[in-house]
Amino acid sequence: MQPSAWRAPALSLRWWPVFQRNLLVWRKLAVPSLIGNIAEPLMWLVAFGYGMGALVGQVQVGDRTVPYILFLASGSICMSAMNAASFEALYSAFSRMHVQKTWDGIMNAPVSLDDVVTAEMLWAAFKALFTVTAILGVMLALGISASPKLLAAWPILLLAGVAFSCIALIFNALAKGYDFFTYYFTLFLTPMMFLSGVFFPRDQLPVAIRVVSDWLPLTNAVELVRPLFMDQWPAHPWRGLLVLLAYAVVSFWVALALTRRRFRA
Predict the structure, then answer these.
(1) Which residue in 67, 75, 184 sits closest to 132, CA to CA?
(2) Of 240, 238, 235, which Cα lies nearest the Cα of 216?
C-alpha cells in the first residue's frame, strides 16, 4: 500500500545539493536575470512614484504624512518579492520538473521528491531576496529612505518570498503547461496587488473588501515593511509574521502533497 500523499514532509539536508545546482546554473545568467527582475519594479517606481507622486503629493499613513514615492516604494518592494518568488517557482520550476525532466534526473541520486520541492521553494525565496536587495539598493541611492530599521526588512521579505514560492508551487504541481499560470497571475496576484495597499491606502476600500484584504499575504508583508521605511516599528508585528508563516507552512504542505500525487501518475 502506497503511503499517503498528505503525509508529513520528510525533510533532510539533501535539499542543499539541489539548491547548489540551481545556483551554479543561475550564475551563468545572473546579470540578465537581475536586470529582468528589477527593471519592471523600477519602472513602476519611476512612473507612479515620481509621475503620479507629483500629482498626489503626500499620503496619510496612520498619524503620519509621507511622500507618495516613499509610500509606493515600501509597497512595491514587497510586490517585487512576491513576483520574483512566483516566477521562479512557476516558470523555472515547471521547466525543470516537466519540460527538461531535471527533477527525474536528480531523483536518480539518493535525493527524494520532498528534498527537491524543498530546494525549489528555498531557491525561489533566495531569488526573491536577491532581487529585493538590488531594488532596495537603488531606493537607498535615490534617497527614498535612509532608515536603519530597513535592516529588519530582509528577514520579512525572505519570509514573504518563502510564502509566495510555496503558493506558486501549488499551481506548479497542477499545471499541464505554461498557459495554466495565467490563471494564477490574473485571478490571484493581480487583484492582490491592488487590494494590499501597495498603490493606495487600504482605507479607501469598502469595509467588506478590507476585511478580506487583512488576511492576504501581500497585505501583511506591506504592513510589516512600510513602517520600517518610515523609521518606525510595525504596530502588530507578530500578527503579520504569523499570517505569512501560516501561508508558508500550509501552502508548502499542499504543494508537496499535490506534487507527490503528480509523480505517482
Answers:
(1) 75
(2) 240
How many Å apart are CA 230 and CA 74, to the nearest integer?
A: 9
Average pLDDT over residues 146-164: 95
Distance of CA 109 to the CA centre of its chain: 30
- Can you tell me which residue has the cell 492582490? 192
Do 129 and 161 form a contact (C-beta atoms < 8 A)?
A: yes
Q: Name the CA radius of gyration of the chain, rounded.
A: 19
Q: Is 26 helix (H, G, I), strand (E, B) or coil?
A: helix
Query: Contact 39/148 with Cβ under 8 angstroms?
Result: no
SS3 265: coil
What's the pLDDT at 173? Answer: 96
- Judged against a pLDDT cut of 70, whether residue 265 lies above it is answered with no
The 3-state DSSP composition of the chain as helix, strand, coil percent (nearest 5) reads 75, 5, 20
Per-residue model confidence as pLDDT tens digits over 74-109: 999 999 999 999 999 999 999 999 999 999 999 999
* Closest C-alpha to 131, from 76, 183, 172, 168: 76
